[in-house]
């Protein structure tokens, strides 16, 4: 069982994450994790930090907690290995350049690897590691490449959402397929099913929209702190399970894809 987290904000925010606390809240108790990673978008590029061992052992993560980065888009993943050995190549999130933009992907689930490789052709991208998740990312990029324009600008978000939704519908036939995907312009979150106390079922993701004044206190949750911006801030948060009590976390419907830009949900789709 992996844990996913993402943020899209109107203005860059300082994000502090204590992955040990965050993972305990999501049910991934103790130090028995197989890797962690965080991707921060910054000035058109991605600052990707990941390691193939438990966050509790990481001096690197402690440095990040003490010296947090500012970003308007963040994707984080805590790994519980189901496919592929414990290695850096198999640690998420994954990042690739396509069309002059950095694309980032993280997946929570367990796909039928043989059917995945037989049904989803690759284009110009190939996995470095052995996971179903990275293969799925490379297959998604092959489809995204078909709709890119020569202008250097991404297609309308509705067109990209339709493509991601179609891809997600095919992926769901192979197993649990919650994923986060960012293309340097928008964040796409696909909800499916995940392990709960009573079995594998929806929801696989939850989303929360927040708006706060510049002088408001930081957003704090289990293992997460987001500092306020200098101006009015809008934030969309996505997590495997709700990170706070008493706030309107909304389950992402089974098969739904939510698209967010600049701290707002701009489109939704379900196939």
Structure description:
This protein is an alpha+beta fold and 271 residues long. It has a single domain (3-270), classed as 4-Layer Sandwich (Glutamine Phosphoribosylpyrophosphate, subunit 1, domain 1), CATH 3.60.20.10. It has 5 helices and 17 strands. It has helices spanning 19-25, 59-66, 113-119, 132-147, 157-172, and strands at 3-17, 35-42, 45-51, 70-79, 94-98, 101-109, 177-182, 187-190, 194-196, 199-201, 206-212, 219-221, 224-226, 233-239, 250-251, 256-261, 264-270. Strand 2 (35-42) and strand 3 (45-51) form a beta hairpin. The chain is globular and about 50 Å long. The mean pLDDT is 89.
CATH class: Alpha Beta
Fill in the CATH topology: Glutamine Phosphoribosylpyrophosphate, subunit 1, domain 1
Give the class from helix and strand content and strand pairing. alpha+beta
Coarse morphology: globular
Q: Topology as H/E string?
A: EHEEHEEEHHHEEEEEEEEEEE
